[in-house]
Amino acid sequence: MNNQITRLAEIIILSIKKNMLRKAVFSKPADRSLCRAVMSQKTVGGKAILQIEYFHADNKATHRNIPLSELSPELISQMAEGFSQINVITDMGECEYKLSKKASAVLLGADKLDRKLNESQAKQATTASNNREKRYILDGSEPFLFALGVADKNGRVFDKKQSKFRQINRFLELVRDVEDKLPTEKIRICDLCCGKSYLSFAVYHYFANIKKYDVTMTGIDLKPDVTEYCSNVAKGLGFDGLEFICGDINDYQTDTVPSLVISLHACDIATDIVLKKAIEWNADVILSTPCCHHELNHSIDCSALSFITDYSMLRQKLCDAATDALRLKHLEAHGYSTAALELIDPDETPKNIMLRAIRKRISTKIPQPQKRLLTSIFPPRLSCAEMRIWINFIFKGLLYDISQRKKIYTRLPRLRLRQG
């Protein structure tokens, strides 16, 4: 057996014992039916295991779980013999194994990594609970991440794509949180204003490959070059249930309404169009992250708020918060429970508010005053432009009624009649 392979297997075993193995990527297999394999530590049923995920040429993935008690250098060496390149990534560093066409093997970085792993013993004993690598739903080795340029073929996420990788994983965590509100086994999903479709591919992968659901998903965007590119990527990945359509989401019709509607950074009033469409479909769950909020910022005209609106930065923050809050109230008026959540660290992007709406299974009676307020905020059948005009009336109505110490909901309907 190859001595370098044996040495590599010993390092992998050591990193596992220290609980420091992030992953080991096995690539350039001799078996052409395989693309690569990824080894990582997992916990299944409360027990720590070593999981090996094999990615096959037919775009399928299989798993092999090995209890840590059965691990040995011989077992790992036997598995590694069929691959010409192996990258081991740990908390203490990395090493790389390469086998040339002339069967000459080289192991790079092994001595340094071995030394660091051994020296970390005392530190590991006291910091293990606080120094664990965050366990993401995706680990970077997924084929669609390579196809979209987020990671290389060995599963290493590119430095410039780290924030996007974290964003994708965070979005999937939010999807997982509402999973119990969605159908099981078979699901219909729409990504409206999908853009480059990172989330489309991630959500499809999550339900189709991780949860093993029967998934049909549609991404819709106005840019023909983007939808054509995404369609080709989906076809190349074998994502048969994922399609992309170029068109206006206002005009899109589907025989099977989606249970889940998602949207990431739909610009300005495009978010309102997304929410309107999702409400029409009576979607079970809506996850939408707004982008820019120009409409209200450009049109707000309220002298009582001039102490804020006279300052452009504060004016923008006010309009951002007011627009999203009114969107959530609009969803509540249509029978959804709502929340505003943080999608990702604001240091990475200021556009980090996720609007989440979950359709209530049991009809909850809204008190009449509150119902009148909600329906007056967003009266039925308003266009997006009319909706923005109405927001201005709301500002004036709210402030007027507060100053007069009158009930808010008694003022707003009269505003509508007078202005309509």
Helix content: 40-55%
Strand order of the largest sheet: 4-3-2-1-5-6-7
Number of domains: 3
- The number of distinct helices, counting runs of at least 4 residues, comes to 15
Number of strands: 14
CATH class descriptor name of the largest domain = Alpha Beta
> What fold name stands as the CATH topology of the largest domain?
Rossmann fold
Could you tell me the mean pLDDT? Answer: 80
Regions with little confidence, pLDDT below 50 for 5+ residues: 122-132, 375-384, 396-420
Spatial gap, N to C terminus:
84 Å
Q: From the alpha-carbon coordinates, what is the Rg to the nearest angstrom? A: 26 Å
Give the CATH architecture of the largest domain: 3-Layer(aba) Sandwich
* General form: elongated
Strand content: 15-25%
Order of helices and strands: HEEEEHEEEHHHHEHEHEEHEHHHEEHHH
Structural class: alpha/beta
Considering the protein shown, what is the CATH homologous superfamily of the largest domain? Vaccinia Virus protein VP39
